[in-house]
Design a protein that fits this description.
Layout (H helix, E strand, L loop, with lengths): L3 H4 L10 H8 L4 E5 L4 E3 L7 E7 L1 E6 L2 E7 L3 E2 L2 H5 L6 E4 L3 E7 H10 L1 H34 L3
Antiparallel strand pairs: 1-8, 2-7, 3-6, 3-8, 4-5, 4-7
């Protein structure tokens, strides 16, 4: 079982108190371990959960090519919470991985119980996705500059 202190390290729970995490988040979590090379999320398939990486690391693959490596303290699967589309990438265990999982249904149940807490979670998610988009913009610009020798 995970503690509120450990969950507060995840940006998804930024601004939440220990009490909010203990009463509204932890009871909604399930835990799952994955073996080396096991698929956690398959590109193109439905995913209805956010996975919090507690231990280990994962490869993020697009078209069977590793595009990122994520580890402890990071999350996967959050895009599908907002866009309700099939998974945009495959997530594969790079080594044995321990995760805590919250389903989209559980997150939406928070909306029924505590709208302010739900709003905080969605804002945190939006900030994370915005940060990733900015990083991708910078990477794209750097690649474009390198390919076309721009200064």
């Amino acid at each position: 079982m995970i503690t509120a202190d450990k969950l507060q390290r995840y940006s998804f729970f930024g601004g939440l108190t220990s009490e909010q995490i203990e009463t509204s988040i932890i009871p909604r979590l399930v835990y799952k371990d994955f073996n080396f090379d096991e698929i956690i999320i398959q590109e193109g398939e439905s995913n209805d959960s956010i996975y919090f990486i507690l231990e280990g690391s994962v490869d993020i693959l697009k078209n069977n090519k590793v595009i990122a490596v994520l580890g402890e303290g990071q999350t996967v699967g959050e895009m599908e919470l907002l866009d309700i589309m099939p998974a945009a990438a495959t997530v594969r265990a790079r080594q044995p991985v321990k995760t805590a999982i919250i389903s989209n249904k559980a997150i939406y149940s928070i909306y029924c119980d505590n709208c302010a807490l739900f709003a905080m979670l969605i804002m945190n998610l939006a900030r994370d996705l915005s940060r990733r988009l900015r990083q991708m913009d910078e990477a794209y610009t750097a690649l474009e500059d390198a390919c076309f020798n721009k200064q």
